[in-house]
Amino acid sequence: MNASAILASVAILGGVALTFAILIALANKKLKVWEDPRIDAVSELLPGSNCGACGAAGCRAFAEELVAGTRQPAQCTQLGGEDIIDIAEYLGVEAGTAQKRVARLLCAGGSHVTLRWAEYRGLETCGAAAAVAAGGKGCAWSCLGLADCERVCDYDAIYMNDVGLPVVIPDRCTACGDCVEACPRDLFTIMPLEQRLIVQCKSLLEGEEAEELCEVACNGCGLCATDAAPGLIEMKNSLAVIDYSNNELADPAATARCPTGAIVWVEGQQFAEKPQPARSQVA
Amino acid sequence: MPYKRTFRHGVHPPELKELTEKVKIRRLPFPDEVVLPLSQHTGKPAKPLVQAGDRVERADKLAEADGFISAPVHASASGTITAIDLWPHPDGSYKPAIRIAVERYSPQAARPRIIPRWEGLTPPQIVQAVQDGGVVGLGGAAFPTHVKLAPSKDVSIDTIVINGCECEPYLTTDHHIMAEYPERVHLGIRIMARALGVDRVMIGIEKNKPDAIEAIRATLPADLNVTVHPLTVKYPQGAEKMLIEALLKREVPSGKLPLHVGVVVQNVGSCAAIAEIFETGLPLIERIVTVTGRGVAEPANLIVPVGTKVRDLIDACGGLTEDAHEVVFGGPMMGAPQANLDVPVLKGTTGVIVLSEAETRRKESFACIRCGHCLDACPVFLNPQLLGQMALAGRYLETEDHHIWDCMLCGCCSYVCPSNIPLSQLFQVTRTAIRRLKTEAAA
Predict the structure, then answer these.
(1) Distance (Å) of CA A222 to CA A203, A227, A240, A254, A255
(2) What does the DSSP 8-state code read for residue B309?
(3) Rounded Cα gap, residues B132 and B277, in angstroms
(4) DSSP secondary structure code for residue A194 in this structure
(5) What's the pLDDT at B405?
(6) What digits encode the pLDDT tens for the residues B305-350?
(7) How close, in Å, is residue B396 to chain A by CA atoms?
(8) What is the pTM of this model?
């Protein structure tokens, strides 16, 4: 074998490799983008589920905002207290405070209190039932009870109770809003846990018409608006609407005279596993 | 006929028309209350012109059209307006409606009115008169008829197709309109031909209505180029795009309307309603409804005031039988099931069908076996099994690439599926989901 041919090829390939190595080394110097190493570290500490409840596009985007100091660690809705303190200590910032927000269902019409006109047979999803004569339920605004929200929840925070209403477990809810999108009746809303006064009804019917369909419907009587502090509750389209910008005025007294129990004062979880009979049945 | 006129694909459900095929149309007595929803047509709801407490005569205008793609609502009976508020609508929701307590001993006469002579009107005047008459497509979709009579300038219409197929099982509404009022149908055709400036009219009637074909043929006008075409019986021949294919061998492109291939399709009932405006001066305040099915004691074809509650219709037909299980508006293939018997008959309600337990029993669904029956049934040549799999997986936006919007929800795929997969219901859910996703993305 010709030794010079071997040497020549080694030299050529070695030369080419060396040239590119130098080019790459130069490019690395010249085009380097410095990234704060803390972003990677903070990303590691975040849950990484990209739920979006904090308002950032994902966990990495939230980490960038944390490092930049525009957000506070407590605004992550998923982490517990210790994890938040870890991030705060690592970054040397205040953990901050955030309002705990949860998904609330604006309907209390379980199968024990609502009128059902017809039996729905078909695809077992709320989206399908909503398109077929309102799923057979009397109230056209009510929860269909076929658990689209339960299926879509990534955190097992929703389960269906005995009367077919979804129960949100506040500790597990990250306020990501997937259930809000899933509900064909738009019954879910994300609100701070400390907004305890809730009108659990969306029916636009009034008076006996509303009560015939559902024992816990808001019948638009306006008693709660009279009892509450001025400016807190307003009647709109025969439905009590709470102005949460005045939430500090809220107090359980507003629920005292509600004839149907449509307006409630909620501490923590919204519905019980086995719900009580409606107020009108008790009296 | 040398070749069998029909479209490609489709299914052959049992016709079941024998219950009312031979029953002559009769008039329903005025009910105690009529409920007239402001939204009875495709397009914007009408704007009310009256208030609770007003007294109205039959045929008075109660609500005016809001824009061009909208239709007014007229009183279908004389009486007093008790309320304008939410009332159950056949689509399952509550919609604003005008309620009239009908006067018990009223002659139910309309106010004297000037009836225009259509021969003297220009096409735009005819279109205006049709809109003022509140005429909408009576075949079920309830698209305002005048819109179809005023196509934009950049399309040229060469043919009017009159839809007398009535391919849905059970229904005999159009059948009886053609068999009992053929002159009125022909007058409507004449007026439309004048409004559109078209002289070729084709009437498509399925062969299972020989008496209707005969009646329409016997009254054919000599001075217009109107031809009657008996068609092979198949579902969904009454879908306008299928009918155009059957009669003219033209295919309406994806996302386009019949007028893009030079055709306007009208239902025979709409023709008769147009004729009525120029014959008696009455707007669309009553329609013919087939009340049928094994769950009704005496099935019948009835002339009913628009806004009559289903309860009154069923009572007039001898009430429900023991076996009654489900009430459907429209045909059994595409109709909307009703949960509440207080919903009113709308302008577009072709029939009220009460099905028995055996007919509505839901069969267990199994996994797709990829047999391809649905592909052979789909009249618009989609791939229902693929779309169904995507819908089940929640991949809604992807179905748009496979033309979910060309689906007309005719239900042929669900009908033939050996695994009982509710395909057309899945597509309905998918389309609602896509609309929601798009509005959320826009917001």
Answers:
(1) 14, 9, 7, 10, 11
(2) B
(3) 9
(4) T
(5) 95
(6) 999 999 999 999 999 999 899 999 999 999 999 988 999 999 999 9
(7) 13
(8) 0.85
Any idea what the Cα angle at residue B241 is, between residues B290 and B238, rounded to 5°? 20
Residue of A114, A117, A120, A123 to mutate when probing chain B, most B C-beta within 10 A: A123
Each residue's pLDDT tens digit, B95-106: 999 999 999 888
Same domain, A112 and A50: no
**Residue B425 CB neighbours (<10 A):** 22
CATH classification of the domain holding A219: 3.30.70
Domain that holds residue A53: 38-91
Residue B2 has pLDDT above 50, yes or no: no
Which residues, 6+ apart, have CB-to-CB distance to B143 below 8 Å? B41, B42, B43, B136, B137
Q: Does B360 touch chain A (CB under 8 A)?
A: yes
Task: Tell me the mean pLDDT in the region B122-148.
Answer: 92
Whether residues A183 and A249 fall in one domain: no
Asked, for residue A96, whether it belongs to a domain, the answer is: no
CB proximity B52 to A under 8 Å: no
> Which residue do the tokens 């389309």 mark?
B431
Q: Give A84's pLDDT tier (boundaries 50, 70, 90).
A: confident
- The answer to whether residue A124 neighbours chain B at the CB level (below 8 Å) is no
**Mean pLDDT, rounded, for B170-196:** 95
A-B C-beta contacts closer than 8 Å: 64
- At B1, the pLDDT band (50, 70, 90 cuts) reads very low
Indicate if A131 and A199 belong to the same structural domain. no
In a domain, A20, yes or no: no
Closest-CA distance of chain A to residue B101, Å: 18
Does B364 contact chain A (CB < 8 Å)? no
CATH number at residue A174: 3.30.70.20
Query: Into how many domains does chain A fold?
Result: 3
Question: What is the per-residue pLDDT for B362?
Answer: 83
A163 and A107 share one domain: yes
Report the pLDDT value the prediction gives residue B222, as an integer from 0 to 100.
86
Helix (H, G, I), strand (E, B) or coil at B330: coil
Within a domain: residue A232? yes
* DSSP assignment string, A64-104: HHHHHTSS-GGG-SS--HHHHHHHHHHHTS-------EEEE
Within-domain flag for A86:
yes
- C-alpha distances in Å from residue A96, one per residue of A39, A71, A73, A91, A92: 19, 9, 7, 12, 12
| Contact B88/A at CB under 8 A | yes
Between these two residues, B394 and B399, which has the higher pLDDT value?
B399
CATH number reported for the structural domain that contains residue A82 in this entry: 1.10.15.40
pLDDT, tens digit (0-9, with 9 covering 90-100), for B358-383: 888 888 899 999 999 999 999 999 99
For residue A279, name the pLDDT band (cuts at 50, 70, 90).
low
Same domain, A181 and A222: no
CB < 8 Å to A206, chain B: 85
